[in-house]
Amino acid sequence: MLLQDIIKGFREVATASVADAVDKLAGKRGYMDHPIKPRINDKRVVGPAVTVLEGPTKEFLPPQHALDLIDAAAPGSVMVIGIDGEADVAIWGGLMTAGAYARGFEGAVLDGGVRDITEIRRDYDFPVFSRSASPGTTLGRFKTLGANIPVVCGGITVNPGDIIVADIDGVVVVPQALAAEVLKMAQEIDKRELEQAKLIVQARSLKEGLAKYGRI
Question: Which of 124, 133, 171, 178 is the most buried (most CB within 10 A)?
Answer without folding.
Answer: 171
